[in-house]
Amino acid sequence: MKKPLIIALRMFTLAATLFAVGSCASDADSSGLEYMPDMYRSPAIEPNVDYGEIRGREHKEYKTILSSLTPPNHTIPFYGTDSTEVKLMLPGRKASFVFRETHGLFGFDFSMADEYTLAAEDKTNPYTMTPANAPLILASGKEIYTAMCQHCHGEKGDGQGPMVVSGAYVGVPAYAERAALSDGQIFYSIYYGKNMMGAHGSILNKKEIWTLVHYVRQFQRADYGKFDANGKPMTAAVADSTAKKTK
Amino acid sequence: MKISNIQRFKRLSTVVAGVFTVITFLLPNQVLADGGGDFKAKCASCHQPHKNSTGPKLFQVRTKWATGGAKEGSIYQWVNNWQTAAANDPYAADVSKWSSTAMSQFPDLSKEQINGIMDWIDMQPDPATAATTTGDPTQVGGDPSATEEEGSFGWIWIVIGVIFVIIILAVGGVRRQLKHVTSEEELVEKLTYGEELRAMAWKYRLWVGLGSLVLLLAILVTVLQGLARINVVENYQPSQPIVFPHDRHAGVNGIDCKYCHNSVTKSKSAGIPSVNVCMNCHKQINGEGKPFADQIKKIYTAAGWDPTGAGKYTGKTSPIVWNKVHVLPDHVYFNHSQHVVVGGVDCKQCHGDMKTMNEAVKVQPVEELNKIEGNIKLSRPTLTMGWCIECHAAKDVPLGNGKSAYYDEIHRRLKDNDKTLYRKYLKDGKVTVSELGGWECAKCHY
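YS: structure for the whole thing
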């Protein structure tokens, strides 16, 4: 007689407590009850996890340093391990010292000269396009272009991407206006950035950039990436005499 | 040879200048339209009328040069070849120090064309004064005070309940004391609270029994439901250091998810973009209206970008500490690139339609995810194991379409070596992830 009543009373208290605890979960800033919190705040380093607090202990010094930092120079992998390929994928030209201030490229190897002008001499894309790999290059180029370039440069490469159309961003040139640029200069512009365009070397590897160089050429020459019966590219070599004029 | 050509052209252009000025007066609209076209073709990639960009803003730049003490006509020389202008005119030399980026040379632009461009520029209204604030980003992510009230709501009821109990006990105590006063000689009535309660319970034992049974069941259900919510992180929506409207970036401006979360195709983690990726656009876009500008200033602080004048990076960076939203425990292995590249799973299957999301990122409840067109419909709470398992049983793997060498090989082996198994898999018309080992413990737990 006595016991069930006491149990009932205790149960009521428990239910009230649970209700109280449960009501905390409606706070959007709280992830709710965790069974084993240390499983979520593991001492093993995971990206974007706040290590300012692990197991109730606060580490202020970690809280302010470990977060979305720009990948340090030379940490974006080259594609592949083949030494000849790695060599081919190197950017070749250094950015000038100016790029520290204009594009925030601190910690890069710099050159005193403006190597963008020199890059006009780099006329051949080291990622050679052959009739066999052309469809692959252009298909993956389209994929990368859609994710990385299309919002400014536009689906057709006319500088009328959704960002420009919405009026958020201005001054994106059409690729056709820059047909005189050499492959090396296009690579340079993507890797280090150019004028308003930021450096994309931190988010694209070398092979992807050279793939984009191929893809972008299509907007300048309709027959780019097409081959004749003998396997010779239908597009003649890039006209380069005007390349130095446009900067 | 080339230079002499240019000079000849220049001389010619000064001769025809007079003729052109007459035409300018006769056909102002025509020339202005050309000015706009020329501006867009030649200048717009570096200059804006009212905002400093790669080059300085050009609104009323002729007046600026004239009042600044530039030599007559040196601005035209500047456009043709800034180096000769800087050599001839100290004012132009000063201008060349504005930015470390050198201006391109436009030797083929005539004075009239330049005037046309500048007339067009001077006619452009200033968007900063014309702009009306389209929204307040502080409204993005919901009103923080509202969620707080909701949280304290339960506590209010508990406090009210406790107060009620105290009042009831107090009234009971008064009643008892009054009883003692009125019938002091009746010693039998001297019962404690407990004894009184027990007597009452015995008197109404049927109701008490039924009541406590119902209460017990209710408590059991509540407790079990409460236990089932442990480690369920649906609706987790931590506040972020910068208010980031996904709808504006991915929706209106059409930026692909993979541009900012660019490691999603290469790594386990989708990644929060480092601030240099933000700066690819925000170097130019500094926010119209104070609430937006305030948010974007935080990016500038983090990137070490000094937006005054031409703008430059100072090299003094500071990280933005974002709060991670989707956290999996340490004993689960999840790889984004595997799901996105190999599996071809769309972001919205797990993260919802971010193109319409105005508020801070949250763990979408599974009901919300099910509403999205094209999503596989699931029933378990998001980010629980049941949810993963369910999807692995439903999602089909495109076999033998030549897109993945790995799946092509599986397809070949199934086809050539084990036709009965392949037929068994294909009973429901598709080969699911679970049939190819997606339910094996060690796939995710090791």
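YS: worth flagging: Chain A has two domains: 2-65, 83-220.
IM: good catch. Also Chain A touches chain B through 87 residues (CB under 8 Å).
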